[in-house]
Fold this sequence. Notes:
Radius of gyration: 23 Å
Largest sheet: 22 strands, antiparallel, barrel
CATH superfamily: TonB-dependent receptor, beta-barrel domain
Number of strands: 26
CATH class: Mainly Beta
Number of domains: 1
Distance between the termini: 53 Å
CATH topology: Maltoporin, Chain A
Structural class: mainly beta
Strand content: over 45%
Amino acid sequence: MTNYTVCILFFIAMGHVGLGQEADWGETGEIEDAQVIIEKNRKIELPAANRTYEKAPPTEVNKEVKPQQYDFNENVYGGAEYKPSLKVSKLSSTNKTASYNNYVKLGFGNYVSPLGELSLNAIQNNISAGLSFKHLSFARGAVDGSSSGSSDNIGGLFVNLNNKKNVLHLGLDFGSVKRKHYGFSDGSRSSIDPTKQKYNSFGINLGFKNTDTESLIDYSFKTAYYHIDDNFNAKESGFTGRLLLSALLVDNISLFSEAGFLLTKYQDITEINRNLIDIKGGVGYELGPLSIRAGVNIVLTNDTISNSNDFKLYPHITAKYKLSEQWSAEGGLVGDLEAVTLKSIVKENPFIAQNIPLVHTNKQIEIFGKISGLITHGVNLSAGVSFANYENFYFYTDTLRFSLAYERDATNVLNLFTSLSFNHKDNLSITTRLDYFNYATDVLPEAWHRPSFTSNLSIRYKLNDKLNFGSSLLLLSGVKTFNPETNSTDKLDTIVDLGFDANYQINDKFNAFVEFDNLLGKKYERFINYLNRSFMTHVGVSYSF
């Protein structure tokens, strides 16, 4: 009997031990009007974790029909505390008329960069379906013209069946990402041809969710299959699943339970089967303004290193206290095993080497606290702190093609954060987020390629029914890297990326847009020797129908 079969039987047997909270899924989303960037925000269905360091989500000014969103995220297990995206999350910039569910968008920009986007959606009775596709390519890049070009194609389709008590979701996603390894030093770049890399991704997902508000038991189940490969014979395939149950015993006491699995096969020079099963269960209690959830998280795994135990037990304790009508405080003590896969690494950094070591990150313990509330009308504030202790925390090394270096002993991560959002009627929306990180490693001299400070700001303003515009700002600093050519530590320059976009509604179907990225024109490095493109622009039109 294979490892896959054993783990699936185990999951089915254990997935009904308790009862768990309901998860949000099956909603349609939108492919944002921005360059597709691979990042670590996985989409192989992961449990909702008590993250105190996620980015503040932007608030949309214009309500509109959203097509299904597709990307290369894994969505079953949580990732590390910082995902090194180079772009601020933007508000929707296309002012499409709300009565239209479908649109086509075409644009063109410098660096020879065509943009094409299609979204088709239909609703009939209790069935909704949609199809989305986006293409964005750059024939030229920041280094040696075509030697640093790139191309991204992502898309998918979905069908939702709703009978008022349950929702069944079926989905398919696919994509291809082309990059070139152009991160040579100045002295060797002209004499070596950059290596071309292409990643192909395919996935099928299925979900079932209870939407009956009168039901005593809430439940949802999600499962998926994914496959990713590149043109150097590296490939990974995986099955994921997650069951969540919750039930109210009496007025103030409830039970919750989660059970999930991640079964992967990674093939490169060697072939490795990596299985992960987690079971979480506990009791929820509410007493006036205080709500508490207390339980345990059990994880079974067969990872690829000698100091990875098969059985792990973590606490799962969270509490929230309502200080007033406008303010609340929350905190917790949690632990988990965070999955690290080829797909999650490729999404975060496409310039990786072959046969990279894959080891799940053991978050042995995390303590966090947060306070949030309404300062005044339309102004919301959130601030907090988290401290986590990790085992097998990974960092990036090398320059041309990156590998992973693991801190096998403890890595302590301190995160201080604050976020602020402001909304004025339907005309103005502002969101901002600041994070400070401190990494304390035991063996490695530095936390390679991890930033110590990040800040992002997003603004959108609707001048009138015809014209709206927005701006975004990203700051990222404190990134240290190991330079093998000098055998020393380099500190990368602070990243400052300013963007702007404007949209003009020509009529109820046609919209003209212009987008600017990196207005300051600085060729910054997120990864050493990989310069980002400087000033970028796209202009075009969209047609809604």
